[in-house]
Amino acid sequence: MWAHAEYIKLLRSASDARIFDLIDEVKDRYLKLGRKPSRLRVWKSNRRVKSVSPGDLLRIQATQPFTLHWSNDEWQHVNDTGSISTPIGFDYVDLDIGADDRAPVRFTFNWRETRNWEGRDYAVAIAR
Fold first, then answer.
1. I want to staple 61 with a disulfide (CB 3.0 to 4.6 A). Which of 1, 7, 87, 92 is the partner?
2. Do 117 and 108 meet the contact criterion of CB atoms below 8 Å apart?
3. pTM over 0.85
4. Over the stretch 31-54, which tens digit does the pLDDT of each residue have?
């Protein structure tokens, strides 16, 4: 029945030359002229972002507390950043991608509850 209802809405929209069940408040929120797109890029184990752009906010996300061991200069300098827990079951660390950043962001996880290292490094390129 759902597919039939969607088809009827599609026919009605085509006939009216406008989306039949469009909610104006939603349209205004997401299609407003001049609205800047989100610069948040989320990396998680099942959705590994390959690259980010300068000015983006790279969010590294996992399902358990961690310390992010990371570098943005090919491991010349390292940083350890503790994750922030959320009430909806994930932890995250946000990294600002600066205008001058060129080297990939390289990182690994130290899982706080078990004190175990991930055992591999990950990289997110900086796209220009």
1. 92
2. yes
3. no
4. 777 777 789 999 999 999 999 999
Do 99 and 54 contact (CB within 8 A), yes or no? yes
The Cα 80–Cα 68 span in angstroms is 5
Domains, the chain, in order of start with CATH, read 2-31 (no CATH), 40-126 (2.60.40.10)
For the chain, give the mean pLDDT: 93
3-state secondary structure of 24: helix
Distance, CA of 104 to CA of 43 (rounded, Å): 14
d(CA 127, CA 21): 38
Q: Are 61 and 46 in contact (CB under 8 A)?
A: no
Per-residue confidence (pLDDT) for residue 26, from 0 to 100:
85
Alpha helices in the chain (DSSP H): 2-16, 24-31
**Residues near 39 by Cβ (< 8 Å), separated by ≥ 6?**
53, 55, 56, 57
